[in-house]
Amino acid sequence: MNKPVLVKGSSWWHKHSQLPLVIGKVYAESDDREAESDDFTAICHIHDHPELVIVHGGTAMHSFKGKDYPISAGDVFCILGEQEHYFHEMHQLQLLNVMYDPVGLNLPIGFFGKIPGYNAMFRLEPNHREKHEFSSRLTLHQSKLAHSVNLVESMYTELLEQPPGFEVSILGGLIRLITFLSRHYGEHSGKKGSALLRIGEVLILMENDPEKPWSLEELAECTHLSPTNFIHTFKQATGVPPLKYLIQLRIRQSMELLAGTDMTVTEIAFECGFNDSNYFARQFKSINGINATEFRARCEMGGVFDKSSFKS
C-alpha cells in the first residue's frame, strides 16, 4: 500500500470556522460510491489530531495500521494522530466522525482524566487495539447510540449555521459527548475493555497523588492483576512501565513547582515524592535534557511551561 495521506487539521478548520474542529458525515451504500474530493473515508490516511468515530448504521471493515476489523452500528472508537486507517467493504455504512484539537479547544483534559472510561477509551484503547483485536471498543445500545448521534447532529447544525455563540455551543456539545461516552465505556466495552478500565482507574490514582510512595504490588492490587501481568498490561496500554510513568508524573509536578513557586530544587524534589535529590536531578535531566535550575531560569526569562505537551 502507498504511504498514507496526511490529513492536517489546520487545513480543514478554516473551511468551516476558526474553531479547530471538523464534523464529517459519511453514507456509503458500497465501496464504489461517488465521494467528494475531501472525503478520505476509503483512502489510507493519518491525522495530526484525534478523531472520534460513531457508527450509526450499516457495516464495514475498519483498516487500522494495516489490519482489518469489522464494524457495525453502535461501535464508537477513537483514532489518535499518526495512526493510519481507512474503511472498506462498506455496506449501507453511516458514520459520523469528529476530528478535533484538544489543545486548541482548551478541552478540560485534566477533568476528563478523572473518568476511568475516558482514560480507557480515549487514551488506552487506541494503542491497545491490535492486542485486543478491537474487542475493547465501545459498543452502544440503540438508545445511547441515538443520544450520541443527536449530540453530534446538534453540533453539526451549529457549525453549519453559525448563529451567535455557536463556538460555545459546539464546545459544550463536545464536552457532553466525550463525558457521555466515557461514562458508558465501562458498561458496554466487553471483558477486555474492563481490563483497560481498571488501568484507567490506576492512572487516576497515580495522577491525583504522584508523590505517594506507590508500590507495584499496591497498584497491581487495584487492577486485580498479578504484578507481572499488571506491568505487562500497563506498558502495552501506556508505552512505559508503571514506575517509569510515575516518575514522569513526578517530574511534571516538579516542573509546575519550579515555574510557579520559590521553593528550592531540593524542597521540590522531596515535595514530589523523591527521597534522593541527586536521583531527582538525574531523572529531571534525562526527561527534559536540561537540569532543574536551567529549567527555572528559562521560565523566569519568559519561557512557557506547556502542560499539554507533557501529559497525553
Summarize the structure in words.
The structure is a single chain. With 312 residues, the protein is of the alpha+beta class. It has helices at residues 13-16, 109-112, 116-128, 142-161, 166-185, 190-208, 216-223, 227-238, 242-260, 265-271, 277-288, 292-300, and strands at residues 5-7, 21-28, 45-47, 51-64, 67-72, 75-79, 85-100, 138-139. It is built from 12 helices and 8 strands. A hairpin with a 2-residue loop joins strand 4 and strand 5 (67-72). Helix 4 runs antiparallel to helix 5. The longest helix has 20 residues, at 142-161. The chain is globular and about 65 Å long.
Which terms would index this structure?
312 residues, alpha+beta, six-stranded antiparallel beta sheet, two-stranded parallel ribbon, globular, disordered C terminus
The fraction of residues assigned to DSSP E strands is: 15-25%
Low-confidence stretches: 308-312
Cα radius of gyration in angstroms: 21 Å
Mean pLDDT: 88
In whole angstroms, how far apart are the ends?
30 Å
H/E series: EHEEEEEEHHEHHHHHHHHH
What is the makeup of the main sheet? 6 strands, antiparallel
